[in-house]
Amino acid sequence: MFTSASEQEQGGGHRRRDGYAVHIEGLRAMRGGRAVLHDVLLAVPRGQVWTLMGVSGAGKSTLLRTVAGLEPFDGGRIVVEQAVTLTPGPVPRERHLRALREHVGFVFQQHALFAHLSVLDNITLAPRHVRGLSRSDAETRAMSLLEDLGVAHRATAMPAEISGGEAQRVAIARALALDPGVLLMDEPTAALDPARRRTLAEGLRALTRNGRSLLITTHDTDFALAVADNVAVLADGQVVEVGAPRDVLTQPRHRATRALLSSVDGQRADATAPATGSP
């Protein structure tokens, strides 16, 4: 369920939280009788980049998807940009989530572009149908985004015709098409080489200049150090450590953070180990 800011005002509602783009209070989510999120508390200020980190199964993606209104939750609430409050219950029908879509953009790990639409049409879809823009106005906005992201030359291409890196930039453009104040990204560096990760980090930092906030799930500590203002570490569905990246990722206090860093170090060692056996 959710309410918009106007509904809160009419019904008494909740006090708004100035300065926070996303405010999560006591969030609890059950899946198959198991708590996958438990009493999550998180407050992301406007204009900052936060990364959600933790070992696989810690609850990062579930948390991100609940903020996007893509998954239900069972307790607590989520306040987005002081304008929309998500409350426990089943996920509403998409037409009831239009207020949320105005404030939150989501970039899926696998990009999730519509295969039957061109790059340009992927980006203009929401502005035309959610905001009611004309095709001409929506295309002008879309081309500006594609130009900023360096893929304007691919506007007429179909998703199957573009590279993975291009698809990611198109997905970012689509998520920004409604000019949301909050951008959510699920593991954006998973398929990128180190050079592209650095470029992505620089581009994402630039998105905060007008006050936009980013909440990103990642296993990539180098990326988090480069892009984030703060890191939140999850373990067993709870936020167990929050702080500046260099504090959390170089001087971890919680055992879950130490376990995460140990697993990352192990993956790096495996990646750089010389091959064995016969050529």
Average the pLDDT over all residues and give the rounded result.
87
Can you write the helix and strand succession as a string?
EHEEEHEEHEHHHEHEHEEHH
Shape: globular
Low-confidence stretches: 4-17
Radius of gyration: 19 Å
Distance between the termini: 59 Å
Lateral strand order in the biggest sheet = 7-8-9-4-10-11
> Which oligomeric form is depicted?
single chain
Total strands: the figure is 11
Largest sheet composition: 6 strands, mixed
Proportion of strand residues:
15-25%
Helices, by number, come to 10
Counting helices, strands and paired strands, the structural category is alpha/beta
Estimated helix fraction = 25-40%
List keywords for this structure.
single chain; alpha/beta; 5-stranded antiparallel β-sheet; 279 residues; 24% strand
Annotate the secondary structure layout:
Layout: E1 2-4, H1 5-11, E2 20-31, E3 34-45, E4 49-53, H2 60-67, E5 75-80, E6 84-86, H3 98-101, E7 104-107, H4 119-129, H5 135-148, H6 164-176, E8 182-186, H7 194-206, E9 213-217, H8 221-227, E10 230-235, E11 238-243, H9 245-250, H10 255-272
Parallel strand pairs: 4-9, 4-10, 7-8, 8-9
Antiparallel strand pairs: 1-6, 2-3, 2-5, 5-6, 10-11
